[in-house]
Amino acid sequence: MSRIVGIDLGTTNCCVAVVDGDRPRVIPNKHGYNTTPSVLAIQEDGTRVVGQIAVRQAITNPHHTVYGIKRLMGRPFDSEEVEHARAHCSFEIIAGPSGDARIRLHDKEHSVAELSAMFLQEMRVVAEDFTHDRVDRAVVTVPAYFNDNQRQAVRDAGRVAGLDVVRILNEPTAAALAYGFGQATARTLAVYDLGGGTFDISIVYIDEEGEFHVVATTGDSYLGGEDFDERLMDFVIAAFHRDHGVDLREHPVSLTRVRQAVQKAKADLSSVTSVDINLPFIVSNPSTGPLNLDYTITREQLESITADLVTRTLQICEVGLRYAEMQPEQVDEVVLVGGMTRMPAIQRAVEDYFGRPPCKGVHPDEVVALGAAILAHAIETESEDVALHDVTAHSLGIMTAGGGFDALIPANTPVPTKVQEIFRTSRDGQTVVKIVVLQGESDKAADCAALGRFALAGLRAAGAGQVEVQVTFSIDDDGIFSVGAKDLETGEEKVIDVLASSGLTDEEVDRMMADSTEYFAYRRAQESPETNEDECLQLIARLHALLPEAEKKMAWTPVGANAVENARKAVQLVEGRLEGSTPETQAKHIALLSRVEVMLEKAMSKAGS
Ligand code: AMP
Predict the structure, then answer these.
(1) How far is the CA of 195 from the centre of ligand 1 (A)?
(2) What is the pTM of this model?
(3) Which end of the chain has a smaller Cβ tally under 10 Å, C or N?
């Protein structure tokens, strides 16, 4: 049986962990680092570069280097957040066919889920190299404040990466789990999680049995370290404009250098009180020739230009505590998560607010992945040691006549849950009710995320308000959300699982998964060419074993027959050319056969369902 790993898919860094023996441990990447930057670049020839190397080449390849894309996940192109990102990012963000945000790299359009899948895949490689085992299942963490569309985007990214996302776990809940697992002392934790792109606060009660109860959670999925970076960039760019009359925002290469320099300066200012940002030949001005950028930034300056961001996190803590019906002093321990919590101003602010110093001994970059690994291990071993009781971060409800939002399940309701409400027709002669399912905290439907829509038809034609429809919302233990509508006169009922949308169709996800499998197989084959011939033979054998069953199951449908035919041709082609072939040709064969295999399995599972 393959391993289940825990993956923290962060805005700035990704981290993978696994339980090794009886303790969770982070797996270092091949460069020896425990985290991998969530940065990727696509080169002219289609080669992708992920992590440290992508960071290094960003200066020379700014338009095709992607970073911070978690902030775009599951968001419509016309949202405020995407507009903000378009103004600040060096890569091109465009509208996708279903109104989602996509990224154009070398004339090819990529969905956010597809690019995120490349990070997940990288984590998969790191885990497989360590475990020497196949890794195709993972617990993946997300900010607690992600809505269902954003969560679906993560699931889609998992599918594209060839990973079955067995559970989506909220990041602060994962951190609480890693911090408090195995200690059966009743207490309440506040998990303050400020990462690269998002902020969450969760209040978690651990009972005397060691069970975890999330009491309240809230946050802002567009508030994080990148906002601090932008403030510092604005500061430096304004100073340079004032001193030299040149706007660095018009020079993408210079801008990338400034971005990297301010990120480093910000981190350094957590341990020293002033830093120099020195970038020789940052830009060349026709009248003055090459110009250097040279400024000293103090910790005090950084704190002053970002003070309102820190205050905003505390205001969100206030909301979280209000949901929990608690005062700050009732919290027993404060756990800091996310790289940004190394900033002294944040540590001070949190200490002042909760009236106690934060707990020591938590690694802010690794604790989330460790928590995910603990849950992954419990799922893998079917252990009941991990008991987690979470809440919904957002209100769920329906659109009312006039474009309002009626929340049936308010934010911070413990799951699983089931709620029923009776609605009456709003027009004379109305025989159909249309249910639009929404998620959000506004009383205006337009400000909430639309999760799905369906209709209950065949109602008795009567005066407005005379026919009653019972609407049921339920969320099960796995977080699967379903909605039902029942005509109370006839008993006619319609129930749907509300599958949130990342903006991708099923076919798109399948195609991306095939592309990524092919790429992944090719890369691995290039890394260990000595086993390529064997690998080809194994793939051929597996396909020979699969083909008769595939034919039986699917040959009667045009799509199925096509998939079978393609697989057969691919096997014949490779069989005919294998003898005497070079490891490079064999790597290409492996890529092709891996793609064929995954597409055949996909088509068979669809035919069987
Ligand atoms: P995470 O998403 O948890 O990996 O957090 C990454 C964020 O933490 C990025 O915005 C980093 O710039 C920031 N960060 C990392 N180290 C430090 C540090 N020493 N001081 C301040 N911020 C940091």
Answers:
(1) 6
(2) 0.91
(3) C
d(CA 609, CA 605): 6
Closest ligand 1 atom to 365 CA = 3
CA of 223 to the centre of ligand 1 (A): 13
Q: What is the mean pLDDT of residues 127-147?
A: 93
Compute, in angstroms, the gap from residue 392 CA to the centroid of ligand 1: 27
Backbone angles phi, psi at 456, to 5 degrees: -115, 115
Q: By residue range, what is the domain housing residue 382?
A: 3-223+315-389
**pLDDT of amino acid 480:** 76
pLDDT average, residue stretch 189-213: 96
DSSP 328: G
φ, ψ for residue 190, nearest 5 deg: -110, 120
594: left (phi over 0), alpha (psi -120 to 50) or beta: alpha
Residue with tokens 């991998």: 36
- Token match 């982070």: residue? 26
Q: Are 586 and 533 in contact (CB under 8 A)?
A: yes
At 476, the pLDDT band (50, 70, 90 cuts) reads confident
List the residue whose alpha carbon is closest to atom 15 of ligand 1: 339
Give CA–CA dist 334/495, Å, rounded: 42
Annotated catalytic residues are 8, 70, 171, 193
Domain boundary among 335, 363, 389: 389
Based on the fold, state whether residues 94 and 156 are members of the same structural domain: yes
Among 487, 250, 219, 484, which Cα is nearest to 338's? 219
Atom of ligand 1 nearest to the CA of 226: 10
Tokens of residue 49, six digits: 């570069």
Q: Which two tokens stand for residue 273?
A: 């009180």
Same domain? For 25 and 142 the reply is yes
Beta strand ranges found along 252-380 (DSSP E): 274-285, 289-298, 333-337
Reported as a single tens digit per residue, the pLDDT across 564-607 is: 898 999 999 999 999 999 999 999 999 999 999 988 888 888 77
pLDDT of residue 604: 86
Q: Is 277 a domain residue?
A: no
